[in-house]
UniProtKB/TrEMBL annotation:
Protein name as it appears in the record: Iron chelate uptake ABC transporter family permease subunit
GO biological process per UniProt: siderophore-iron import into cell
UniProt keywords, alphabetically: Cell membrane, Membrane, Transmembrane, Transmembrane helix, Transport
Bilayer-crossing regions: 12-34, 46-64, 76-96, 108-127, 134-159, 179-199, 220-236, 270-288
């Protein structure tokens, strides 16, 4: 047991050093001695990477423990589609230029509250109607995601082409245009939700054994699942409202954390997943800015790598079961 703890500490320390190294490289490379300007320009992006990485790691690991499936992510509840629908409705009814001009902290919080409110309300009523059948809820979430996408597509087809062009820029994940006024409030909200998952990590360790075992050990599983859905929806809603949809990030870091740490203890998985997410985001952004000269975007790189990793994991799991 002591050797396992020492091994985990060493692996976490390696990840921490890797994160500090890549952050220093990103902040200092090609600054031409203009440190203040570089820190102001790149520092906000690094803060956004940290917030999105922590939110993605905590929400995905908790969601996969709740569903006991390492292939699922919170986006299966249709939160990405809901974000696209909310943005499309705003652009359709208010107009793109007016919506972009009125972007403020109030608009940001309204986006978060709307996404979290709708997803939690749907989850609550659907869980009650389905007798707490979690997999029926996930299936309904997938159908709702398709429904939201259909409405968004219909509105985008009849939209003014100029408004549609502005909308497309809003629907892709972007770390370059994060408003600093959002970082403080988003950071406080994410810290509160992450702290909750941290102090309840011992319940997640037990839930990892299975629902029946968790019930036998005295956990009110339906109530705990509902609270988890609320917290996970909040983290995904904040992350998406801050930078846009980043579908595969949580899937990559959660599964690599399981393999790297080789433990069921969620506190260690949370730390490892967060550090991995921050490292991947900063490293990918460094490559995009310094190697590819901004000819591609971070979201495209994440979706491409995540898609390949997803297919590779499915093939690997299939071979192991034969």
């Amino acid at each position: 047991m002591k050797k396992q703890e020492q091994r985990s500490s060493v692996r976490l320390m390696i990840l921490l050093l890797a994160v500090l190294g890549i952050c220093f490289l990103y902040l200092s490379y090609n600054t031409y001695g203009i440190w203040a300007f570089a820190l102001e320009l790149r520092g906000g992006k690094v803060l956004a990477f940290i917030l999105v990485g922590i939110a993605g790691a905590f929400s995905t690991i908790s969601f996969q423990t709740m569903t006991q499936n390492h292939f699922l992510t919170p986006n299966i509840l249709g939160l990405d589609s809901l974000y696209v629908l909310v943005q499309t409705l705003l652009f359709f009814f208010l107009g793109g230029r007016q919506t972009l001009g009125e972007t403020s902290l109030t608009t940001f919080l309204m986006n978060v509250l709307l996404m979290v409110g709708i997803s939690v309300t749907l989850s609550y009523f659907l869980l009650k109607k389905s007798g707490n059948d979690l997999f029926l809820l996930l299936m309904i979430g997938m159908i709702l995601g398709t429904f939201f996408n259909s409405i968004s597509t219909f509105l985008q087809v009849v939209m003014d082409p100029n408004e549609y062009d502005l909308l497309q820029g809003r629907l892709f994940a972007s770390f370059g245009n994060v408003d600093s006024q959002y970082l403080l409030i988003a950071g406080l909200l994410i810290a509160g939700l992450v702290f909750f998952l941290w102090i309840k990590s011992y319940l997640l360790d037990v839930l990892h054994l299975g629902n029946n075992q968790a019930k036998n050990l005295g956990i009110n599983v339906p109530r705990f699942q509902l609270v988890l859905l609320f917290v996970i929806s909040g983290l995904v809603g904040l992350s998406t409202a801050l930078v846009g949809p980043v579908t595969f990030l949580g899937f990559i870091v959660a599964n690599v954390s399981y393999q790297w740490m080789n433990t069921y203890r969620h506190r260690e998985l949370f730390i490892a997943g967060s550090l991995l997410a921050i490292f991947l985001l900063v490293f990918a952004q460094f490559l995009i800015e310094q190697v590819f000269k901004l000819n591609t975007t971070l979201s495209i790189v994440i979706e491409f790598v995540g898609g390949l990793y997803f297919v590779g994991k499915i093939v690997s799991e299939r071979k192991q079961r034969r």
